[in-house]
Design brief:
Blueprint: E1 5-11, E2 25-31, E3 43-45, H1 62-74, E4 82-85, H2 93-103, E5 106-111, H3 114-122, E6 128-131, H4 138-145, E7 150-154, H5 159-166, E8 169-177, H6 197-200, E9 204-207, H7 217-229, E10 237-241, H8 246-252, E11 261-265
Parallel strand pairs: 4-5, 4-7, 5-6, 7-8, 8-9, 10-11
Antiparallel strand pairs: 1-2, 2-3
Helix pairs in contact: 1-2
């Protein structure tokens, strides 16, 4: 049986590669185990240690790059535009919303509990937020928050939310597709019935994979680190301690139990 793999932060104990030496801190694709043998092609050396190391599993790692690339490279935001983010309290969504606010956009997020909605509005700076579980008519809900339509929809969930969004996009709107978490565990994925709207509204939908944008990582750090240090961008983490609690933390992702980026702490040293 092989251990699960995922993005993590590690300390180099031994290296046969000239770019890495004992004691270096790295982030990248590792395994859920205390000691791993990993390829250097999957790693990034951590140069900035004046922020929490756990940030490199989130805001300064893959989720942060995903939010940055999807919103700025595919979303092409402009000041004053209307932005909707689904799964907005998650590892990626919480950053997309804050990037949008920094750009001067109007931002609404959806989440799955009152606690998460309150965090979006009162801590993360979203203009509005709603609990999708309490909305029986998502089309009507979106029309309430976006009477003039949506310019950018950052797609994290798919299914019924995407179908409702398609009825509310503005002409030349953009939909960066990051994920469709509502569909992953379904035996029969839900159909989307409103796709003709992307023709009528000339909407651009584009899926992306963060690996295609890692060449922008230095530019991303230059953009984001000052905002973190100035307290202008916040990041929520949900920490689980110990490998023995890993399965519970993983399963909780699919029921929305976590608030913010789910992090599993294997060791503190």
């Amino acid at each position: 049986m092989q251990p699960l793999a995922g993005y993590g932060v590690s300390k180099v104990l031994e290296s046969g590669h000239s770019d890495y030496k004992k004691g270096d801190l790295v982030w990248g694709f590792t395994k859920w185990e205390e000691f791993s043998l990993v390829s250097p092609t999957l790693l990034f050396k951590i140069e900035h240690t004046d922020v929490p190391l756990s940030y490199y599993t989130g805001i300064l790692g893959m989720p942060g790059m995903t939010a940055y690339a999807g919103f700025f490279e595919l979303g092409s935001p402009k000041k004053g535009e209307n932005v909707f983010v689904s799964a907005a309290s998650g590892a990626v969504g919480q950053l997309v919303g804050q990037f949008a606010k920094l750009t001067g956009c109007y931002v609404v997020g959806s989440a799955g509990s009152k606690e998460k909605v309150d965090l979006l509005k009162n801590k993360l700076g979203f203009n509005e937020a709603f609990n999708y579980k309490e909305e029986s008519d998502l089309d009507a809900t979106l029309k309430k928050y976006f009477p003039e339509g949506i310019d950018i929809y950052f797609e994290n969930v798919g299914g019924k939310t995407l179908d409702a969004v398609l009825l509310n996009m503005r002409v030349h709107g953009r939909i960066p597709i990051c994920g469709m978490v509502s569909q992953y565990n379904l035996t029969q994925p839900e159909g989307v019935t409103n796709l003709p709207n992307i023709i009528f509204k000339r909407v651009r939908m584009e899926a992306f994979f963060v690996n295609d944008f890692y060449h922008l990582y230095p530019k991303f750090l230059e953009f984001l680190l000052p905002y973190i240090k100035e307290g202008k961008i916040l990041y929520l983490e949900d920490l689980a301690e110990g490998l023995e609690n890993g399965p519970k933390a993983l399963v909780g992702l699919f029921s929305g139990r976590n608030v913010g980026k789910q992090v599993l702490v294997v060791a503190h040293d």
